[in-house]
Fold each of these.
Amino acid sequence: MQYQFNEIEKKWQKYWEKNKTFAAKDNDVKPKYYVLDMFPYPSGAGLHVGHPLGYIASDVYARFKRLQGYNVLHPMGYDSFGLPAEQYAIQTGQHPAVTTKVNIEGGVDKQGNVIPGYRNQLDKIGFSFDWDREVRTSDPSYYKWTQWIFKQLFNSWYNKDTDKAEQIDTLIEQFKTNGNTNVNAESADVEHFSAEDWNRWSEEEQQKMLLNYRIAFLSDTWVNWCPALGTVLANDEIKDGVSERGGHPVEQKLMRQWSMRITAYAERLLSGLEDLDWSESIKDIQRNWIGKSVGASVRFTISPPSGESEGAIEVFTTRPDTIFGVSFMVLAPEHPLVNEITTPEQKAEVEAYQKAASLKSERDRQSDIKNITGAFTGAFAIHPFTGDKVQIWIGDYVLASYGTGAVMAVPCGDQRDWDFATHFGIEIKNIFKDKDISEGAYAEKDAVIANSGFLNDLPAKEAIKKAVVEIEKRGIGKGKTQYRLRDAVFSRQRYWGEPFPVYYKNEVPYLIDDKDLPIILPEIDQYLPTEDGKPPLGRAKEWFWDEHSKKTVAVEQNQKPPSGVWGLELNTMPGWAGSSWYFLRYMDPTNDGEFVAKDKVNYWQNVDLYIGGAEHATGHLLYARFWTKFLHDLGHIPFDEPFKKMINQGMIQGNSAYTHWLNLVMFKAIKKDLKFEINDLNVAQYSFMSEFSLSKSIAEKLIAEDKSTEELIKEKIDVAYKKHHPDFKDNVLGKDYEIYFKANSQERIIKKHVDINYVEVNDLLNIEELKKLSRNPLGKAELLLEDNGKYICSREVEKMSKSKFNVQTPDELVEKFGADTLRCYEMFLGPLEQHKPWDTQGITGVHGFLKKLWRLFHTGENESFYVDETPILASADGSPHPSGELEGALKSLHKTIKKIKEDIERFSFNTPVSAFMICVNELTALKCNKREILEPLLIILAPYAPHIAEELWAKLGNTESITYAVFPKVNEAYLVESNHKYPVSFNGKMRFMLELPADMSKEAIEKEVLANEQSQKYLEGKTPKKVIVIPQKIVNVVV
RNA sequence: GCGGGUGUGGUGAAAUUGGUAGACACGCUAGACUUAGGAUCUAGUGCUUCACGGCAUGGGGGUUCGAGUCCCUUCACCCGCACCA
C-alpha cells in the first residue's frame, strides 16, 4: 500500500477539527505551557514558504509539550488593522473589512484574482492551533478592549515614588489638598501650583493640567508627518529618514496628537531585559533604542557681557570627571538662550548660521557630519570650578532634541569637541595623565585625571563619582540619567484602525463610559482625508457623541451640533495598539465583561515561548512590554513581562531564476574600410529584429570575452538581421561591416527574472511549458542553447517576492509532497534563527524518508500493513535481549528518543529530522518491524509529521489521537556499549581504529594500543614520549 | 564610529562539554531494475596525489598530547544604532 499523503492529511485535519483535539483547557490541573506565534497581517498575496517556518517550529514545540503532559495554549489570530488594506480601499473603494475577510477566509478580490485565504493555507499544513480562540484586532468585540485599555492609560499617571502607574484619582486627590508641590510624577514640564490654584480652576483648566500627567495624553508635539501616507508615524516606523512602509519622505510638523508616556517606563523596560530569555541582539537593539546615559546635569552661569543678564546654561554630560577640561560650550542652533546671549557684534553671523541650520533637513544634518560648522555667540560662561571664562558657541552637531540641547565641550576627551576646537582654534586643555591628545581626543574611560583640582590623580571612574558629589554639594547641578527613548505618538490620520473612545468639549477630551464601548468605526464614502485636511473619519456623518442617549449620532456637515452632542476623535490608533495585548485575549477570547478574566490570566500567565521575526525589535516587542507593565501596575495581570522566551526565525530567501539576454545596445557595427560607425538608428534597428536569449554557459562565455562565442553571436546577429531586413542583402552586416562588442563585458548581458515554476532540476528551463503561456517571456527570441540543446538559467538568492517571480507557496508543495514532508523539510533546512535560501530540490530527501517510514509498517504481502507483535523479552534487570538484531533496534530507538528530546528542548529543530532519518535507515537495514520499536517511534515523530503518525498510530489499533500519547522514556541500559571503537592518534593525527572493551583500564588500553602491529608502523621503532588515554573517547600517542 | 551576528565540501548543513571534521540530505558519477518516473535499490563522492601520503572549518598567531570549538589579531559579509554629549 502506497503512502497516500493527500488522503491521510485531509482525513486527520478533519478529525482534529471535529474532535477539537487541540482545545486548550482553562484552569486544567496539568501544568500549563503557552506557545505563541507572532500573529500575521493577512495580506492579499497569501503565504509563501517563509511564513510558516516559525509556525512549524512552534507547532513542533507545542505538540512536543503535549506529549510531555502539558496543557498547551497554542492559538492563532490576525493583526487585521493596517495600511495595505486601507491603501487598497483607496484604490478600489472596497471596504477594508471586506478585503480583510477575503484575505483570511479566501475568495475573489475586486480584480477577479482568487485569494486562497490565510486560514485555508494554514489549515493545509496541519497546525495544532486552538482555533476556537482566534482573535482579529479589527473585530469590534476585540477592539472594544483595546479602547478599554486606552481608557486605563488615559486615567493613569506615573508615580515615581512608587515607581508604577496609578489611577489618576489619586493624583487629583493630591492636587486638591497640596497642589503639585509634593508630586513626584513622570510628566511634562509643569509650573508649580497650589491646592488653592487647583480648586479655583475651571473644569476645563483642570483637565488641561491633567493631560500633562496622564500616560495617554494629548499634546502639541513635533511629529513625523508623512504627506504621502497622510499620517504621522512613530520613530520606529521610520527607517533612514523615510517611512518604513512605502519609503515616502517624512517631515517634522507640530500637531496636536495623542501620545503614550512610554518614557516613564524607560528604566523598567531596560532592566526587565536582564531576565528575559531573548537573543542578545534583540535585547541590545532595545537597550540601544532606550539609550540610557548616566551622568550629571551641570549649570554654567553666563558671564554677563554688559553686566545685566543672570542666566545659566544647563548641560548634560556623561563625563563630569572631565569638567576641568571644558574650554568652551556649544548650544544647538535652536537653543532658546541663543538670541538672548548673542552679542551685537556676533548677531549677524549667529543668525545666518541659525538660518542655514534650519534650512537643512534632519537627514542632511546627519549625513553631513564631516563638515565642522559653528558660530561664536560672543558670550561667555563661567566655569563653575575654575571661574575661567569659556566661550559659548552654537553648532549643529549639538541636537536640540537630546538632553538640554547644550554641551560642555571637553576637546581632550571627546572627538567631536576636539574637531570643533581644532577647526576654530579654541584652546584644548589636557586633563589626562600621560595621554597624548595632539592627534585626537582620548575618549576611553580608563585614564587618570590631572590638572583638575580636587579630581587630580583619580582614575576616571572614581573621578566621575567624586565630581557628581562635588557638583551636588555646590548646588550647581546633580547626578542625572538621560534616555534616548521618546514618548510614542499614538494618533494616526487613518481610517482602518481602532477609533478612540473620546469626544471633545471645547478641545478638552472626555472618555466614553465602559458600558458604551465599543465605539464602532463608522462608514465613510471615501477612505481619504477631507477637503480641509481632516482625517478620513471627518467624512463620517454619524461621528458625534450624544451625552444623553449615550450613542453616536449624525450631524449634518457645517451644522452646529445640538447641545449635549459633541464631535468624536477623528484620529485612529496605530497598528501596534491591537498587537500590544493580543496574547492576553487568547486566554479568554469571547469574554464580553472583561478584557481577560482574572482566573484565566492567573492560570495561563505569560507566554512561555514566543516565535516571530526580529524586525519587531523596537516596535511591537517594546510596546507589548510597556502595556504589560502598565496593566500589571494597575493590578489587572499578575506578571510584568509578556514573553519569557523568544526565538526569532530567520528569513527564507527566494532562489530567483534568471534568463540571459544579449544586450543589443552593447555592440555596434563599423564599416571595415571607412572605420565609419553606423549611427544609433542602426543600433535601434537591431532591437526590431529578434532578441537573443542565451543559456547560462554561453552568457558566461560572452562575459568572459570568449572569442569563439563572440564569433558565434556575430554570426547569429548577422543571419537574424538579414532575415528581418532582406532588402539590405549582405551589404550592411556582411562583407562591408563588422560587429564589435563594447569593452565592458559585464554589460553584454541583461538578466531577467523568470518564474521559478518553469525551472526544473539543474536549473533547466522548461521551454515547452513556457510556450503554452499566453505571455511567454521568451517571446520570439532566438535561443542560444547549450551543446546538449538545453537552456540553463542562473540562480540568485534574493528576498522572496512576487515581482521577482521566486515565490514558493506552501500549497503547491503540500499538494506534491504532503504537509508532513513540508513540515519536516522546513525544519531540516537549517537552524531556525538563520536566514537561508529556499531550495525545492532537497525536499525529495525528506519525502523519501517518510515513504521509507511508511514501508517499515507495511511489510506484509503486497506491501500491506503488517507489524511483528511478538514482545521483546527482556532480562529481569532490564538489560537487552541477547539477540543482536533486536539489540540494535532497541539501541537505535532509544538513541533517537534521547536525541529528539534533548534537541527539541534546546530548540534545535533541524537536527531531530536527521536523527529520524538515521533511525529509519537503521531499522530498515535491520528489517525491524516490531510493534515495540515502531510504536514509540511514532510518538516522537508526531510533532514533526503529525498526519502520518496519526495514521500509523491508528493502524496499530490505537483509538485516541497520538497528540496526547506519552513521550517515551529513554532506557539508558540499551545505550550501553560493551566495546568502544577507539580512534588511535599519533601526534594528534588519527591513524586507525581499535575496538576494545568499554570497561578496560587506562593501563590496559595503553598496552593494547602499543602492542598493536599498526602502532609499530607509526612508532618507527621509537619509544612513545607519552600516551594519553581518555576512556570511551580516544587514544593519542605522542612520539 | 559603536553594538550584535555570521564565515565549515559543488549546495543546505552536523559536530551541546576541546577528543575520528563534514553526520543527515541535496546534487553529481557509475550500476541494477523498470509498459521512462520528479519511482526504488547498490556503490562512490572535501581537495590533492598513480600511490604511500599531504592539505583542509575566512586569514595569521597562541594555549594544549589534541582546537571548527578556548585566547589574541586580522579580513569579508549581514543586521541594528549613529554628531546621543
Amino acid sequence: MLKYQHIAAEIEKYIQEHALQQGDKLPVLDELMVQFGVSKSTIIKSLELLEERGVIFQVRGSGIFVRRHGRKGYISLLKNQGFTRDLDHFPITSQVLELSVRKPTREAATNLNISMEQDVYYVKRVRYIYEQTLCVEESYYNKAIVTYLNNEIVSDSIFDYIREGLGLKIGFSDSYLHVGKLEEEEAGHLGLHKGDPKLDVETIFHLANGQPFDFSRITYNYIQSQFFIQANGHGM
Amino acid sequence: MLKYQHIAAEIEKYIQEHALQQGDKLPVLDELMVQFGVSKSTIIKSLELLEERGVIFQVRGSGIFVRRHGRKGYISLLKNQGFTRDLDHFPITSQVLELSVRKPTREAATNLNISMEQDVYYVKRVRYIYEQTLCVEESYYNKAIVTYLNNEIVSDSIFDYIREGLGLKIGFSDSYLHVGKLEEEEAGHLGLHKGDPKLDVETIFHLANGQPFDFSRITYNYIQSQFFIQANGHGM
DNA sequence: GAGTGGTCTAGACCACCCC
DNA sequence: GGGTGGTCTAGACCACTCT
C-alpha cells in the first residue's frame, strides 16, 4: 500500500474512532508531516484523496476539517460498482434469476463496443435489503474480458472476483439515470404495481485501460431509492 | 489563473477543437512538460483535474487518453449548482413564482444549521428547457450570508451573483435523491398528473469554509429527468 | 503579522504496459 | 527493455484567514 493511501486510511480511522463531527478540526499540515514522518506533498496527496471522497474539506489559511453528511440509509452514487461496498452495515442479499452465455442485444453491444456476434455473460439478479426488494439488475459482461462466471461468484460480489480472481483493474464508469413508470414484469419482481415510479440506472464499467467490460441496467424500487452525492468545489 | 488550471483548460480546448474521441491518445508527459514549459508535477496536477472531471483517463505505462461519454441531453449530477452551467447548449429559462424574506421551516433551519428565528430568503422557481417544464425549485438562503437578493438576480444565476456580486467562495454540496409520486400542486406546475413519477433532489450547499448557505429542493419532471454521473476509480 | 494551506520546482526512483 | 505514468522528497515562495 502506498504511503499516501496508508496515511489517508489512518486519518479516516482516526475520525471514525473519535467520532468526529462536521467542522471538527484536524491537526495542521506540519503536525501531520512530523507525525507520519513524510514530506508535505505526501500529506497533501492524502488529504486530496480524503477530500475527493467527501471525508474532509480544507480551508486555506484556516485548517483541515471533518466533513460529514447528516443522513443515514442513503446509497452513495459515487464509488459505485454494485454497492456491496457502499452499504457496509446493511444486509444486502442477491437472488440470481439467470446466468447464461448469449449474444448481446444491440443496445448492450453498442455500450460494450463489441459486435453482436461476440459472446457475453448475461446475469439477472434481484437484490434485497432488510428482506425488502431493492432492485432488479440485468448485466452484460464481455466474455472476451470476463472469461468465466458461475453461480457462486454471481451470488456474491462479481467485482471482487473480477479484481482478485481475474486480476483485472477496474477504472471508471459512466452512469445514466432515468425516472419512469414500472412495467408489469418489473413490478412483479419488486412487489410493486404497474405504473408505479421507478428509477433506472444504466452503467457502463470500464477497465483501467479504458475497455468497457460491463453494461448493466438496475431498476430500483422507488420506495428504497434514496441516494446521495457529495460534490466538491473545483468548478462550483 | 493558476498554471495548472490554465494548462488543464488548454488541453480541454485542444480536445474539443480537434474533436477527439474516447480512447484518442494525448501527448506524453515529457512532451507536455516541454510544450508548456513547466515541471512534471504541474502537468500531473493538470491531468488530475481533467481526470476528476471525466475529461481524460490515464493508464500507467501506456499513456493519457480522452474520455467521452456517448449520450447527449443528460444533466450532470456533479459540478452541480443549479446547472445553468452544465447544459451550456440548452436554453434554460426560469420563472420566479416567489421571492421573499421569511423564517425557515424546521427542515430548512436544520439543514442550514440555523435557528428558526433567523431570516432566510425563500425562492420558488419553475425552470424550463426547450419551452418544456423541467423542474420546480424551492430554495432557502441563509440571509446572514446571502444578504441581498432581488428579482433580477433570481431570474438569472443566483450562484454567479453569490460568487461575483457578494465575493463568496462556494465549496461543496451534499445532495439527496428520492423517487416518488407527484402531489397535485407539483403536477400542476410541471404539466403532469397527480401520482406521476417524480425525482426530488435536496441539496445543501456550503461555502468553502464549510458554512451551509443554501438548502434547496428540486422536483423534476420525470420525462426530462435524464442525469449522468461519471465515476473515477480511486476505490472501485 | 502569525499561522496555515496551496503552488511549483528539480530530480530520484518505482511500477506498469507493451513490444 | 524502452517507454510511460506515479510516488515521494526538500524546499522556496505564494495566498488566504484570523486575531
